Amino acid sequence: MVNHEQWLSLTKEEVIDPELPICDPHHHLWEHPGHRYMLEELLKDITGGHNVVSTVYVDCQSGYRQTGPEEMRPVGETELVINLTANQKPGTPEIAAGIVGHAELMLGSRVAPVLEAHIAAGKGRFKGIRQMGAWESNPALQGGYNAPKKELLLDVRLREGFACLSRYGLTFETMVFHNQLMDVVDLARAFPDTTIILNHIGAPLGVGSYAQKRQEVLAVWKRNMAELSTCQNVWVKLGGVGMGILGFGWDKRAVPPGSAELAEAAKPYIMWCIEKFGCRRCMFESNFPVDRDSCSYNILWNSFKRLTRDFSNAEKKDLFYHSAVRAYKLQPARP
After folding, report:
1. CA angle (292 as vertex; 287, 295 as ends), nearest 5
2. Residue 253: what pLDDT?
3. How open is the CA angle 83-84-89, to the nearest 5 degrees?
4. Contact, 229 vs 185, CB < 8 A?
5. Where are the domains of the chain?
6. Which H or E element spans position 323?
7. What is the DSSP letter of 137?
8. Which value, in Å, is the radius of gyration of the alpha carbons in the chain?
9. Which class is domain 4-9+20-328?
10. Which ranges of 69-210 would DSSP assign to H, the alpha helix?
11. How far is Cα 210 from Cα 178, in angstroms, rounded to an integer?
12. Once rounded to an integer, what is the mean pLDDT over residues 210-228?
C-alpha cells in the first residue's frame, strides 16, 4: 500500500512565481496517534519552493493544559506554540508570527481573564480567538467541525463574551457551513468594530445530504456570501477546498490532483469571494495539514497562483501577503 507521503509525491510541478511573498494565515500543528504534523513537517512543506515568509497558527486543541481551571486550559496551546517557535533563525520563514487560540466565549464577560492569559503567554504574537460555529444535524457532518449548538453565533451569552474582544484589540474567526453564513452577517453587524475572519470560504458542503447538489449549494452560498461582503469588518480566508466535507474526493484517488484541476474546482468560489470582498479583504490559506489529505503544499499554492495569473502585482501581493498582515496586525517579516 502506498503511504500518504508517497501518494503526494506522485504529482509534482515546478513552482509558479517562486519570488512572490506569502504569509500563510492558517495552519495547525498537532501530534495525534498515527498523524504527526509538528514544526519539522510544516517546515518541510513550506520551504519546498514557494516564498513563504511568515505564517499564522490557528487553534486545533493542541497542547491544552491538562490541569487547572477548565476555561484556562486552551492557554496551553499558545504556550506550546511560543515554546516550539522560540529559536527561529533569521532568514527562515517566521512560523506563528501571529497566533489564534481558543477561548470559550459562552463564558460571557468571565472570558476576559482567559483572553488576558493568552495575550501574556503570546508575547506580542497572540492576535485573536477562534470559536467554531459550524453545526449540522447530519451525522456525516458531525465531529471535529461541529459547534456545541445550533445558531451558536446568535447566542446572547456568546455575544457578551464576544464584546470583550475589542477591549483587547483581538480578532474573531470562525468556521461555519454555507447555510449558516447569515449568522455571521448578524454578528458582524452587531459588532462592526471587531474584525471577523471567515475560515475556508464559508464551507460550501458537498457530502451527506448535500452530495450531488453542488449547483444548488453554490447558489445559496453565493447569495449568502454576497450579503456577508457588505459587512466591511469581515475578511475571508481563501482555501479549505481540499477538506473532505466539500465533497471533491481527491483524497480517495489513486493519484493526487494537479494545480490546474484544483484551480478549476476552486474557481467559482474563490473568484466570487474576490469579486465581492475585494483583494484587500481576502487572503489565501493552506489549511495544512487538513488540506494535505488532498494535495501537497506546492501544488496547492500553484493552484492559487494559476487563479490569479492575470491579476496585477498589487492585487497578488494583497491576496498572498498584505491582507493577512493587515488583518492580524503582524510585524514585518524578519530580514
Report:
1. 115
2. 95
3. 105
4. no
5. 4-9+20-328
6. helix 323-328
7. S
8. 19
9. alpha beta
10. 75-84, 112-122, 156-162, 181-190
11. 11
12. 97
